[in-house]
Design brief:
The complex is a heterodimer.
Chain A lengths: L3 H21 L3 H26 L3 H31 L13
Helix pairs in contact in A: 1-2, 2-3
Chain B lengths: L8 H16 L5 H25 L7 E11 L2 E9 L1 H24 L6 H20 L3 H19 L6 H32 L4 H8 L11 H16 L8 H4 L5 H10 L4 H8 L1 H5 L2 H24 L3 H21 L3 H28 L17 H15 L5 H15 L4 H26 L31 H16 L10 H10 L10 H35 L3 H8 L1 H8 L4 H49 L6 H22 L2
Antiparallel strand pairs in B: 1-2
Helix pairs in contact in B: 1-2, 1-4, 2-3, 2-4, 3-4, 3-10, 3-15, 3-19, 4-5, 5-6, 5-10, 6-8, 8-11, 8-13, 10-15, 11-15, 13-14, 13-18, 14-15, 14-17, 14-18, 15-16, 15-17, 15-19, 15-20, 16-18, 16-19, 17-18, 17-21, 18-21, 22-23
Classes of the chains: A mainly alpha, B mainly alpha.
Amino acid sequence: MVPVSYYLILSGILFACGVVGFLIKRNIITIFMSIELMLNGVNLSFVAFAAHWQQLSGQVFVFFVMVVAAAETAVGLAIIIAVYRTRETLNVDQVNLLKL
Amino acid sequence: MTHSLHLWLIPALPLIGAAINGLFGRRFSRQTVAAIALAFCGGAFAWVLFVCARFSSLTLPHSEFFAHWIRSGGFLVNFEFYLDQLTLVMLLIVTGVGFLIHIYSVAYMWEEGGFYRFFSYLNLFMFFMLTLVLAGNYLQMFIGWEGVGLASYLLIGFWFSKDSAASAGKKAFIVNRIGDFGFLIALFLMIKHFGSLNFGQVFSAVAPLPVETIGFGVLTSIGLLLMVGAAGKSAQIPLYVWLPDAMEGPTPVSALIHAATMVTAGVYMVARSHVIFDHAPNALTVVAIVGTLTALFAATIGIAQTDIKKVLAYSTISQLGYMFMACGVAAYSAGIFHLMTHAFFKGLLFLAAGSVIHAVGGEQDMRKMGGLKQYIPWTFLTMSIATFAIAGFWPLAGFFSKDEILWQVYSSPGSWVFWLIGVVTAFITSFYMFRLWFMTFFGDYRGRAADVQAQPVHRHTDHDHGDPHESPLVMLVPLAVLAVLSAIGGFAKYWPGGGIEHFLSPVFYPIVAETAPDLAAEAAKRSTEYLLMAISLGSAALGLYLAYLLYYKRQDLPQKIATALNGFYEAVVHKYYIDELYATLFVKPLVDGSTRILWHGVDQGVIDAAVNDAAAGANHLSDAARHMQSGNLRSYAGWIAAGGAVVIAYMIWMGV
């Protein structure tokens, strides 16, 4: 049986990849994908712990996260399309109207 | 004596008049306004006459309770009225002369804007003055005291759009405030030591105390502080400076407030407080010194004034000095007697001067008058009577009262210096009054050449001023009545039953028993008195002659004398630079201190600065914080990641 620490390290690597991707990428779609990566990194640790402790609540929580992620994807893509229609760009550095 | 005389009606009637005219007068016609003012003022006069008629049947002093006012522990102040001989004399003067001046004002002010305002103020003044006179305790007197100051302020600044009038009003108010401060402290001392402000209670508390001949006791302090108040109200050194400026007000106001009634309130107060002063001879000496100096000082300034009203103003100050001189040697009835005759002839002088000013179209400079005798014969006649009366010619009013004062001063021990100054002042008084008389009424009319320039104070719109013209009958009647009073008022000394001094004596000498007259000593006193009379008559005549010589016969002489006495003359013309001195000593430091320390220092430096700096600090802080909100999505993400990293680092560090 694979020790739980392996899963957690992988989970941490996935999450860190998501964070780094979020911070350095300028394309909104890529940033969006980075968010998914972070969510799935977290999901992995949930599942790993659930298996380790033989408890279902971790699994259940992953379903919740997936549902929320699906909803978020739907809303997020809609926003991205709206942004693209108005600004004709997907570069987040140019979508900076919300400031003084 | 049980039933009430309703003394409260006397001040209440003018108050009602003032309220009606003040609140609704704007909509009334001039006739209505005048009728209301005259009716309520005349009503007060009528009630005083009624009281007068019932006077002999009263047990004196007669006191009437009106309402409770302050009840604080054992300390009690009521609204109450106090009537004795002194009050009665004052009431008659205030309402009688006041009523005459009301009548006069109707014609004098007819062309002026704010007619209703004027009469409302005038009635308000009557209310406060009568409150002052009728008060049964010092606090009520103080209300009247402050109230007449207010009315005086309002009336001096009646033409408030004129800058000089507005500042004259302020000056009068502020200078009076200094005196009122002294009065107030005196009241506090009375409360502390006697526990009451009621005249009867204070006086009966003072009466058994020993006379403070040496040292500086309570009674001396109270006396001196009361004198400070009196000096403010009655324009004595060093607080006299407001009265000449008060001439900015309409002339009837000068006659009523600044000659006949309000300025004599100080004399009345000193006379009313005579029990205190009798127990504080040192304070009394101060009163005498202040009065004497003021009499001489103001008289010398009067010589060189060219504004007809300013001459009369300094003359008023000087005559008030006489009254204080009399009070200062404890001859209170002589002081009140002079107060009465002065109210007649000085009121008349001012009203006649108003008539002159009216005649020449608002000109007040005597150098532009002259020869008015044939234009305004009635004014000339009445003014002549007043001039001879104030100069002290027999048998006019001024002679008797001034002589009585000088005699009392002479006969009180160690006061011959006061007497000498008094006689010199009488001479100067006679000189400057006849100077005014000759300059105004004799010679040739010098006004025409000057008609073009000089915006008149007294604005007439209906008729142009070719020749001077006599005033209407409404103005002449009060002049005539006052002229008669000025002529015969002095005989009050010889009233059947002992004259005015005998009438007033129960107030001032309640316990002195009638001693059998020592005939020889009486005769010696008589002859001295006649000698003194001759001396003062002589000084008056000398003044007349000198004025005749300088301002009628040899009109080139005054100029030469003025040139010869250049420095001194300049000083007199500029009123000894007292105004300038006060400006440098008090006004300027005060203004500078207020500007630099209070305004620039405290107000701008501390209060404004605290508010402004707090706002500016918040502004700067927000300005710095605002840059976190860059609008850049990735920077937000960076902040979140950094924050998360910090939290995780913290948790690891703390070993959670």
